[in-house]
Amino acid sequence: MKAIMIEGLRYNYPDGTLAIDNISLTIEKQKKIAFLGANGSGKSTLLHHLNGLIIPQEGSIKIMGNVINKKNIREIRKAVGMVFDNPEDQLFSTTVYDDVAFGPRNLGYDEDAVHDCVNKALSLVGAKELQQRPPYNLSLGQKKKVSIAGILAMNPEIMVLDEPFSGLDPYSLEQLLCILERLYKEGNTLIISTHDVDLAYSWADECVILRDGKLLAHGSTQLLEDKSLMEKAKLQVPNLYSIFKDTPLRPKNSEEGRALLGKLLEKQSR
Ligand SMILES: Nc1ncnc2c1ncn2[C@@H]1O[C@H](COP(=O)(O)OP(=O)(O)OP(=O)(O)O)[C@@H](O)[C@H]1O
Question: Start and end of every ABC transporter domain (predicted)?
């Protein structure tokens, strides 16, 4: 069974803006997918459809085979966790514990089960020590971790994260990448939106490239090496690809790049 099947999706905002223009797309389970596109290309609008925050006006979306409609929103939200780009939109309780407990309580779990879910989720993101803190005075990175924990506490199979890396310092970014890697290895399907082509190149299994609400391309990260496609999408080819494009080497991240360059230089000096 596919994780997500989108067919002929169109969406107009009430003011008439056409934000999603006839998108069809299938996403397999247990993949890391990056939705890429310039500002206003429709990434957030598309992501908001995936857990029923926006109900399709035209076309359909199936999550694990279930067509999203007004009646099954609860079920869909259990399967698809949505982490907003601004954690402020997600954190509203007086303590981190209560914030993370909100989802499981809403699902009707008893307090012992809620406690287990909260502990597990906060441990996974390395934020257990924050549980009695009020969310509003946490740092951005801490808020992002707590908002991810709030979603993890409901144990969704699909996690959708809107711009999860924006505003994070390099250390917090690395920590978040580790959290996502762990979830991926545990079998989750991960979908992020980003403008960061370099990050998508090193992180994703597949890319979905949008422009003006239309699907330009969907496939492996090799798509990002296509200069004319990237120009169409108003994006740039990844820096690593630009550096290595005239060589047979195709590192996907700077660590790989450094190792390959090291080997090359060693060979030359012999
Ligand atoms: N509430 C709204 N009302 C009207 N138009 C909207 C609304 N939200 C978004 N749009 C428009 O829909 C289109 C897609 O916006 P969306 O936020 O989905 O793009 P995005 O790719 O996530 O952009 P960004 O990278 O800037 O976050 C844009 O033209 C935007 O102006």
Answer: 4-237
The reply to whether 8 falls in a domain is: yes
Query: Looking at the chain, how many residues does it have?
Result: 270
Residue type, 177: L
Q: How many domains, in total, are found in the chain?
A: 1
Cβ–ligand 1 distance for 194 under 6 Å, the answer no
The CB of 43 under 6 Å from ligand 1? The reply is yes
Please give the distance, rounded to the nearest whole angstrom, from the Cα atom of residue 191 to the centre of ligand 1.
18
Full pLDDT tens readout for the chain, 270 residues: 799 999 999 999 999 999 999 999 999 999 999 999 999 999 999 999 999 999 999 999 999 999 999 999 989 988 999 998 887 777 888 999 999 999 899 888 999 999 999 999 999 888 899 999 999 889 888 998 899 999 999 889 999 999 988 888 888 888 889 989 988 998 999 999 998 999 999 999 999 999 999 999 999 999 999 999 999 999 999 988 888 888 877 888 878 888 887 887 787 777
Q: What is the CATH number of the domain that holds 13?
A: 3.40.50.300
Distance 214 CA to ligand 1 centre (A): 13
Strand order from edge to edge, sheet including 189-194: 80-83, 158-162, 189-194, 32-36, 206-211, 214-220
Rounded to two decimals, what is the model's pTM?
0.91
CA–centroid distance, 13 to ligand 1, in Å, is 9
268 found inside a domain: no
Contacts of 128 (CB under 8 A, 6+ apart): 119, 122
The answer to whether residue 264 is domain-embedded is: no
Mutate to test the pocket of ligand 1, among 9, 15, 35, 44 (most ligand atoms within 8 A of CB): 44
